[in-house]
Amino acid sequence: MAAHSIIADTMSKVPEEITNAIRDGKVIQEDKLNALSKFARTMVEKRGWPAEEDVSAFLDAGYEQDDILNIVLAISVKTISNYSNHLAQTPVDKAFASREWKK
Q1: d(CA 18, CA 30)
Q2: Which segments of the chain does DSSP mark as H helices, in order?
Q3: How far is Cα 12 from Cα 33, in angstroms, rounded to an integer?
Q4: By percentage, how much of the chain surpasses pLDDT 70?
Q5: Which of 13, 18, 23, 58 is most buried, by CB atoms within 10 Å?
């Protein structure tokens, strides 16, 4: 979470209020980004079984079917990475410590 927040904030120029909203599970004020965040969270929470209305809301926000597959890929890669880091107890790099996420 820390590394992705720093990279989004600095390299991708995503405003910190957006990354904070994503981290905190809050509504993002930009509708299309909010739909993306909500759908990605839905895919994780429903373990890949979104309801028809979840998919429709995502597509109605301006996304395509291919975007759904990209979300599945991103979730897959992050799951492998996160599980591996949890098992290895990988510490957060000092460069990312300012955005470390604490539950």
Answers
A1: 9
A2: 2-10, 16-24, 31-45, 52-60, 65-88
A3: 14
A4: 99
A5: 58
